[in-house]
Write a structure and sequence with these properties.
Helix content: 25-40%
Number of strands: 11
CATH topology of one domain: Aspartate Aminotransferase, domain 2
Radius of gyration: 21 Å
Strand content: 5-15%
Structural class: alpha/beta
Length: 422
């Protein structure tokens, strides 16, 4: 699942400061904000951004600018040696033999589905609680997305319901579990179901590069998986970029051809592909950042631990449901692309935090089965109650490696203020 701010995805904008006069109703929270609204005149708290990419960039600035200048001087701007080096590094990091750089996480998913021949008459099973691209790419190819509800604790596919659906559904071409918010789905059970039914498992790891499961790295557990390098991801480019990792030599070769208009050799087209190529600039920047990814993930985990500790100490656990770690400890890690809490009072809480200058986001306000563009699938409200409930209750709080303890304390204090005033 690829997004413009965790995902969360293409075309987002950053609104300017929001002001309100004393006594005025609280503002409608912005659709998305990396930088929060300015606090009201009657609240002296600091502003706490949902995410501040400038803090990550500052120590890498000289290295990034040097790489950009090198690419500019070379004028080797599309694919090329910079991309090959980055692909090799990601493949080694994930423990997969192949990595194919693409123009976005969405295009990475699309080229994989094309290479597998997904098309009209095929069913692809996934979750309705994810970014649009997960099902959108399936529909673009004429196949039918079929949904399975989520586990309310992890937000990932409910394996029991997946098993029931596979037993009664024909023409299933692929299963797509989403490692939502940076935590792996129950891949052991999902892979067993895929094997039993003869269906490949393709991982939407757009938010999960660096996440680990008892079986290995996110993205390299199934037949193939993909990542998004949208700027706000844990490993973010200076624009759009994505990647597929896979284990099959022939599949990898086909994707490399498809991402370049199905061309092999030059100007000869055995396949109809698309322009899904990653550019050298993004490859260079991402290659510089990749060695820092594990330390950044550790920083996110440290900040998640702070939230847990301080929220418990403040007596907030009776008001908020905190993220659950399915694979805690050691190498089995949630990487907290987002720190998502739940409360039935989500909208009022978000308005309160916005007024206090604290950035938040809702992932996602409307499940896919309720989206207008998917009305033709025939689903109705109530078909996936856990996804619908999550859409009404979930709120992402600020979390990124450079977030300070003082800023986190400000978030906790604002939460205490809200719930104690109730």
């Amino acid at each position: 699942m690829e997004e413009t701010h965790s995902e969360n995805h293409e075309g987002s904008t950053i609104p300017g400061p929001i002001f309100r006069e004393s006594g005025a109703p609280p503002p409608r929270p912005p659709a998305f904000s990396l930088f929060p609204a300015r606090p009201s005149a009657h609240f002296s708290a600091m502003s706490v951004p949902l995410l501040d990419l400038r803090r990550q960039y500052a120590p890498l600035k000289a290295q990034c600018l040097a790489a950009m200048e090198e690419v500019a001087d070379s004028q080797a701007l599309i694919l090329g040696p910079r991309t090959e080096a980055f692909e090799k590094a990601v493949a080694e990091y994930c423990g997969a033999p192949h990595a194919i750089g693409c123009s976005s996480g969405t295009d990475a998913q699309l080229v994989l589905l094309m290479a597998l021949g997904v098309g009209p008459g095929d069913v692809v099973v996934t979750t309705p609680y994810t970014f649009f691209a997960t099902a959108g790419c399936v529909a673009r190819l004429g196949a039918t997305p079929v949904f399975v509800d989520i586990d309310p604790h992890t937000f990932n596919l409910d394996v029991r319901q997946l098993a029931e659906l596979l037993n009664r559904t024909a023409n299933v071409k692929a299963i797509i579990p989403v490692h939502l918010f940076g935590q792996c789905a129950d891949m052991a059970a999902i892979l067993d179901l895929g094997k039993t039914h003869g269906v490949p498992v393709l991982e939407d790891a757009a938010q999960a590069l660096g996440a680990r499961h008892p079986l290995g790295h996110a993205g390299a557990l199934g037949q193939a998986g993909w990542f998004s390098f949208y700027p706000t991801k844990n490993l973010g480019a200076f624009g759009d970029a994505g990647m597929v990792v896979c284990h099959d030599d022939a599949l990898a070769a086909k994707m490399r051809t498809l991402r370049n208009h199905g061309m092999e050799p030059r100007y000869f087209h055995p396949l109809i592909g698309g322009n899904f190529r990653i550019d050298a600039l993004q490859s260079a920047i991402l290659h510089i950042k990749l060695p820092h990814l594990d330390s950044w993930s550790a920083g996110r985990r440290d900040r998640a631990a702070y939230y847990r500790r301080e929220m418990e100490r403040a007596g907030l656990l009776g008001h908020l449901t905190l993220p659950v770690e399915s694979w805690p400890g050691g190498e089995l890690q949630h990487i907290y692309n987002q720190f998502v809490v739940r409360t039935p009072r989500r909208d009022a809480l978000r308005a309160h935090l916005t007024a206090r200058g604290i950035g938040t986001e809702i992932y996602y306000p409307l499940p896919l089965h309720q989206q207008e563009c998917f009305r033709y699938l025939g689903y109705k409200t109530g078909d996936f109650p856990e996804s619908e409930r999550a859409a009404q209750e979930s709120l992402a709080l600020p979390i990124f490696p450079e977030l300070t303890e003082a800023e986190q304390a400000e978030v906790v204090a604002a939460l205490v203020e809200f719930f104690t005033a109730a």
